[in-house]
Specification:
Length: 147
């Protein structure tokens, strides 16, 4: 996820991980990380999260972290994509969750390291603080150790 094209894990170039062929574009990556982060950290679907006091703020904080990492690493998330992400992740009554959350609840290995671990590494490389997403990663890693 670096602009300089450094080779990352598994020989991928940063651009390959974000917005190339089978990978989502930068705004899509921010959406996937934010959606996974929100669902896994708060252990619920979007509708229940935003119905709880403080839920919308937690969603917005997570979206902001994901957006900041993508902006630092690749390019800013287009405003329309950001607004669509916020709408989707703050929709009252929504039953939306992420596949990573569904895997975690079912006790299956998900894409924790591939998605969130790589995103955290990218955040560190670019000096972007991600306290909420860091908590998600700790929670998922701890759950994997307990399994």
């Amino acid at each position: 996820m670096q602009r300089d094209g450094k080779v990352g894990r598994r020989g991928e170039q940063a651009g390959d991980r974000v917005g190339h062929e089978d990978h989502p574009p930068p705004g899509g990556r921010a959406f996937i990380v934010a959606a996974s982060g929100v669902a896994c950290l708060l252990r619920n679907d979007v509708g229940n999260i935003v119905a709880a006091p403080g839920g919308t703020e937690a969603v917005l904080g997570t979206v902001a972290e994901a957006r900041a990492v993508v902006a630092a690493a690749v390019h800013p998330v287009p405003p329309a994509v950001h607004h669509a992400t916020v709408r989707a992740l703050t929709a009252e009554g929504s039953t939306f969750t992420s596949s990573l959350y569904r895997d975690a609840v079912a006790g299956r290995d998900g894409e924790t390291e591939h998605l969130l671990g790589a995103f955290q590494t990218c955040a560190r490389e670019h000096g972007v603080a991600t306290p909420l997403l860091d908590l998600v990663l700790v929670q998922l890693r701890a759950a994997a150790l307990a399994a």
